[in-house]
Amino acid sequence: MTSWLSWSSGKDSAFALTDDITGLVTTVSGGRVPVHGVPRVLVDAQAAALGLPLHVVELPWPCPNEEYERRTGQAWAAARAAGVDTVVFGDLFLADIRAYRERSLASTGLTPFFPLWGKDTRALAGEMVAAQQAVVVAVDPSRVPADLAGHPYDDGFLAALPAACDPCGENGEFHTFVTDGPRFTRPVPVTVTGTGERDGMVVARLAAR
């Protein structure tokens, strides 16, 4: 099996890294990873620390779904031409997201693989905290205290989450940026320079350190 990993820059995709992965694929709009809001330069640094090529899908803003599918489809065609047969995703339990990914790859010759699927997210969160380092880059202030934006993803963060929140943030409660982990050859240190608001989320502004 030769795989590319769908790379969000966060803890779930980092935890889904397997030894057969030969490349990362990510979407970028306006110089940032959508939703997570992480600057492209920091994602480049992650890929370099992992020793893996980063395949970037540039998206316009706004991006109609038809255009999103056209551009990501080009990435999947490039993956297939490069000998890739599997695309790895870090999804945990959202069935509609998984079904969409499976439909998107159905005619590409690529097989989707979900190594974290169905795992207990409370136990998984503990494993992630123990194995890697990450910073919380965005929180939904209607579900997570706004002052947790920029906090390390650690035991203290998990303890501060309201009981209704998924500890892995799978329902969109929060997003993360991984700075170190088992496959990293070196850390990707960042500094939180402040917080702001984007698309209804409280976001941490990150800078390379």
Write a compact overview of the structure shown.
Strand 4, helix 4 and strand 5 (111-113) form a beta-alpha-beta unit.
Write a structural description.
With 209 residues, the protein is an alpha/beta fold. The protein folds into two domains: 3-113, HUPs (Rossmann fold, 3-Layer(aba) Sandwich), CATH 3.40.50; 121-208, no CATH class. Helices cover 29% and strands 27% of the residues. It has six helices and nine strands, in the order βαβαβαβαβαβαβββ. The strands form two sheets. It has a five-stranded parallel beta sheet, sandwiched between helices. Strands 7-6-9-8 form a four-stranded antiparallel beta sheet. Strand 8 (190-198) and strand 9 (201-208) form a beta hairpin.
What is the rounded distance between the termini? 36 Å
The CATH homologous superfamily of the largest domain: HUPs
> Are there runs of 5+ residues with pLDDT below 50, and where?
none
> What's the tally of helices?
6
Biggest sheet statistics: 5 strands, parallel
Alpha-beta content class: alpha/beta
Mean pLDDT over all positions = 96
